[in-house]
Amino acid sequence: MPRCDGDKLMNEWELVESAKSGEMQALSALLNQTFVDRAITVKVSLQSTCLRILLEADQVPDSEATIALIQDRMQDIKSDRIQSVQVFGRVNGVNRSVWSETLTLESSASFTSTAVHPPQTSGSRSRSRIRSVDSKGSSALLTGFILAIALTIISPFRVLFHGFLILVHEIGHAATHWLFGRPAIPTVNLAYGGGVTLVFDQSIFVICLVYLAIAFLAYCCRRYRFILVLLGIFTSIYSICLSTSINLILSIFMGHGMELVAIAVCLYLSISGYFCRSSGDRSIYSMLGFFTLFSDVQFAWNLAHDLDYREMYEGGIGGVIDNDFVILARDYFNVDLSVVATDFLIGCVIVPLIVLLVFYTEFWLREWLDRMLLA
């Protein structure tokens, strides 16, 4: 029986409602309906809060006309999960996109163009967009900063949240030991407080699993030459580290190194709002990031400038287990402990700056990565 217009409208309404909830199949169906008369095939994917739309046709899709249609359709959807849209146009059978454009959601009702890539020529360059911190991000950073100061000053709260540092620290050790073939278990040091990671002998079986994982990832990404190159570089570096003492140095350092990673991840999630369901989540991430940063800065400063604190640290855990930086300074780098502490202090200062740099250039980095993946 022929389908009536009412059924067609109801079906489209259902697709719109499904697309609002973030269902990519519904969104793909809507966009393909929009471009069916133009013989353009649409493929969509969602990366975090960025919707990527690939338009393919026998001839180069017209950028202005297709972007206008996409803007109209996205105004009907207004999904909270989508903050920006990247549109790529290419010819069927060609892996490289001919043009691309980025649309940023200004409000629940409008998208605005922020970066346009016209048809590429040998001399053309794409324009990048500098991202800015929204009001919610600024508020979350400020709230987390104030809470972190309070946690650092008030001893009971500091002891309570010190468990977060112990967890991050020991996971950093354990994960790196596993990566280089040494099974490890992060545990709590019941005798002297803090944490300790139990490390077992290096296992050829675990190392083989790592190489198999790399090979499997390469197979899954075999169509992306850029990823294959990165995997090749990583495998070469990994093999060098595995055959030298570098793997031991990394395993010892990555206790404190994982704390730097935690600072970067927490601050980035707070400033960007990624994986945050409420504004309170952003403040919590900010608090954890700043608390870890303040704790590490205080630790590194005392270790570099306070002789009594340095002597206590050099005494080890219970006078039996040497601390990480003591092992690195004495057994591997042959330098004074204050040198290692100063380098770590510099790292603590640099990490927030890197977070800001990546955040402000995020759209440019995404566009660059897209070009490399499509190359």
Task: Report what the structure shows.
The chain has two domains: 5-127, no CATH class; 136-202 and 247-374, no CATH class. The chain is 62% helix and 13% strand. The chain has 13 helices and seven strands. The strands form two sheets. A five-stranded mixed beta sheet has the order 1-2-3-4-5. A hairpin with a 7-residue loop joins strand 3 (84-91) and strand 4.
Key features?
375 residues, alpha+beta, five-stranded mixed β-sheet, 13 helices, globular, disordered N terminus
Largest sheet: 5 strands, mixed
- Roughly how much helix do the residues carry, as a percent range? 55-70%
- The helix-strand sequence is HHEEHEEEHHEEHHHHHHHH
Oligomeric description of these chains: single chain
* Through-space gap between termini: 47 Å
Number of domains: 2
Mean pLDDT: 85
Strand order of the largest sheet: 1-2-3-4-5
Outline, from the CA principal axes?
Answer: globular
Strand content: 5-15%
Structural class: alpha+beta
Give me the count of strands. Answer: 7
Instruction: Using the CA coordinates, give the radius of gyration.
Output: 26 Å
Question: Layout of helices and strands, plus pairs?
Answer:
Elements: H1 5-20, H2 24-35, E1 41-47, E2 50-57, H3 63-77, E3 84-91, E4 99-107, E5 110-117, H4 135-153, H5 155-179, E6 184-188, E7 195-199, H6 204-220, H7 225-243, H8 246-272, H9 279-305, H10 307-314, H11 324-333, H12 337-360, H13 362-374
Helix pairs in contact: 1-2, 2-3, 4-5, 4-8, 4-9, 5-8, 6-7, 8-9, 8-11, 8-12, 9-10, 9-12, 11-12
